[in-house]
Design brief:
mainly alpha; two-stranded antiparallel sheet; 5 strands; globular
């Protein structure tokens, strides 16, 4: 009979920590929505403002520059004012950006609002994985950390679906819908609703116990550790956290300094994980998929449907990743994903190498190459979505020592957004030289990511956050992963 109350207590604990993790992951939903909403609007924006292909690439990627800046400063703000404060600020920026983008009167106006939204996305990309890792029990921290990616792909799907519905109602993304505004403008405006929900939810979340200990608020930290993380000996845990945080001096970028090109080895590992996650070209699928599939013969409605199918596939495989990450481990999943991405991207490069190009430069896949490219694109999404998509966020949230977590995660996330910007802004130009070129480059990056993970990434499954080190001591765990 004693086991029944114990089981019920564990269930309540899991329910509470899942609840606050889902609340934090709402930032990931907005991250995915804001990043993908441009997908359905990009052709209409190009036509409305008479943009060249190169400038269209810049306009699409403009928000990513804001993301890099938002990520860079989020760690410092989180260290000074707490994780919850960053979430609330992000929600306000999301709300303003959604309304401003939908009502933009010119391209520079639109770019400015998109950059503002990018600040929110960048901050959310830092704070959600850090917060979830800091409130989660180690036994299922990977699954909870994966909620960030799950929320991102749900946000991507919602953006694509809402864009498709709005375009269908109006008869096209460039057609007038309600109140004299075109459908593409409403694609931005609808983001205001989840932004408001995120802000209200964040206000109800408990603060991170690691942040509270750093501020000397031990009683509050003890309550949260016991209530949400299931810690029984909270005094010992708080002492361990305090020891891992080091001195009471203010956190800054100088904490990241080391003897490997000026940074600690673990910081470089986080940066390179972030860069490889983007250099395989995943966001080309989500930012340009509608335009991409139209360029190879699909009508607008078919291209929207294909993009939506790809997004649903990403959701399904992210669920698979959530189920596997605490069993198989982070490192092994990354290695499997790198091999899958290399094969699928290579197949896409070969398929587009066999495309025919008309006088205007538009590519067409004929015969079996169209279905092959479609299958390979979805195989790539499967390989990424079940591995590199969620696992990198899990690792970034947990791999850094307590003392530098928020700051190091901010630097790694900023690097990720800069890599994302590089891939996004370069794709239209590279695609103009032949779609096989960018996909060949992404194939090479996927192969290099396998080598990097094999040589440099440690397994973190089952380890307490207080046991994470800066990479300067000999690596043992990776060999046994």
């Amino acid at each position: 009979m004693a086991s029944q109350p114990a089981s019920s207590s564990r269930a309540r604990l899991q329910g509470r920590v899942i609840g606050i993790s889902v609340g934090a992951a709402l930032g990931g939903f907005l991250f995915g929505f804001d990043s993908s909403v441009i997908n359905g609007a990009v052709d209409s924006v190009q036509g409305a403002f008479s943009l060249s292909d190169a400038f269209t690439g810049f306009a699409v990627a403009s928000a990513l520059l804001g993301c890099a800046v938002g990520a860079w400063f989020a760690g410092g703000i989180a260290n000074r004012h707490g994780r919850i404060r960053v979430m609330v600020i992000s929600s306000i920026l999301f709300l303003i950006s959604a309304l401003g983008s939908g009502l933009a009167t010119g391209i520079w106006d639109l770019i400015g609002w998109r950059v503002l939204g990018g600040l929110a996305v960048g901050a959310a990309s830092v704070i959600a994985p850090a917060y979830i890792a800091e409130v989660s029990p180690s036994a299922f921290r990977g699954r909870l950390g994966s909620l960030q990616q799950f929320a991102i792909v749900i946000g991507i799907f919602t953006a694509l679906l809402s864009a498709q519905v709005l375009a269908m109602i109006a008869g096209g993304a460039a057609e007038e819908l309600w109140w004299g505004l075109e459908a593409w403008r409403w694609m931005f405006i609808v983001e205001a609703a989840p932004a408001l929900v995120y802000g209200l939810t964040a206000l109800r979340l408990p603060e991170s116990p690691r942040f509270l200990v750093g501020r000397g608020r031990d009683d509050e930290a003890a309550h949260i550790l016991a209530t949400y993380s299931g810690v029984e000996d909270v005094d010992a845990k708080i002492a361990q956290i305090r020891d891992s945080l080091g001195t009471d001096e203010k956190r800054s970028l100088s904490d990241l300094r080391g003897n490997r090109l000026g940074l600690k080895p673990i910081v470089w590992t986080g940066i390179l994980l972030s860069v490889f996650q983007q250099f395989v070209g995943i966001n080309v699928i989500f930012y340009y998929s509608t335009t991409l599939w139209r360029s190879v013969g699909f009508e607008e409605s078919q291209a929207f449907t294909t993009s939506t199918i790809t997004s649903v596939t990403n959701i399904v495989v992210t669920i698979i990743a959530i189920a596997l990450v605490d069993h198989i481990g982070r490192r092994r999943l990354l290695l499997i994903g790198s091999l899958g991405m290399t094969a699928s991207l290579g197949t896409m490069a070969v398929a587009f190498a066999n495309a025919s190009v008309d006088a205007e430069g538009a590519a067409t896949l004929s015969g079996v190459w169209g279905p092959i490219a479609l299958v390979a694109a979805n195989a790539f999404v499967v390989s990424f979505g079940a591995t590199w998509g969620p696992v990198v966020w899990v690792l970034l949230g947990e791999m850094f020592p307590n003392k530098i977590r928020a700051t190091a995660l901010a630097v790694a996330a900023a690097a990720q957004w800069l890599a994302n910007w590089t891939i996004t802004v370069s794709f239209p130009t590279l695609a103009g030289m032949g779609l096989q070129l960018p996909y060949a480059l992404y194939t090479a990056m996927a192969l290099l990511s396998f080598v990097f993970v094999y040589l440099r990434v440690e397994e973190t499954k089952g380890r307490e956050l207080e046991d994470m080190h800066d990479g300067s001591r000999p690596r043992r765990e990776a060999a046994t992963a």
